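Page 42, continued from yesterday. The earlier attempt failed because a stray header line got pasted into the input along with the sequence. Redoing it now with the clean sequence only.
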Amino acid sequence: LVKLLEDSRLRVRYFATQSLGKLQRSDAVQPIIGMLRENDGRDIYLRHAGVVALGNCAQPVQIRALIKDGSPAVRMAALLAMRRLQLPEIVEFLNDSDDLLVVEAARAINDMPIHAALPALASVLNNDRKFAAKYGKQFQAFQLRAVNANFRLGKIENAKALAEFAAQPSSPEATAAEALIALASWPEPSDRDRVVGVYRPLKREIINVASALQPVINQIL
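This time it went through. Structure tokens are written below.
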């Protein structure tokens, strides 16, 4: 099966990778990584098979070792495997040099969710401005999840972060509005997640959201 990871036919590689994942063989980890590196993200079916196989074969420490790999394709596979395993170290990808991996990390943390990583995603909203002036669906997806992380954590510092984001002139109008809607929904949050719509009821201490808005309300208006 390991030899078939280098077969000229992609379909054969796909089923060989799937089979190695089902066998859960630790000695298949490096060949699977080699397959992912050679594929370089070109065939998404091979990438998916590699991600599932890594999740089944590799120890968490082996997946963590790929966070700084030189190949974006290998890092993406590691990120997706960490998502499946809900490893909190996925927060490292929020600082990745590849914007697409940063966005994918935000999706993983919010959408699973990976609770231990929510504070790191929430903190990115105002501390890292590299996405603030970027527009498009992928960057909006990143910002909406950073907004939602603050909303779900529900502390006064999270409310202040949302108010400050809404007041920033560089914040896209749609996500700034979402931050304000989140603040308006604070006292009675919906039982469904604001981004992915699944059932995730919130139980948290009620805070005075007006105190978070007051310092920046003039800027917002």
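Notes: The CA atoms of residues 132 and 171 lie 5 Å apart.
Reminder to self: strip header lines before submitting.
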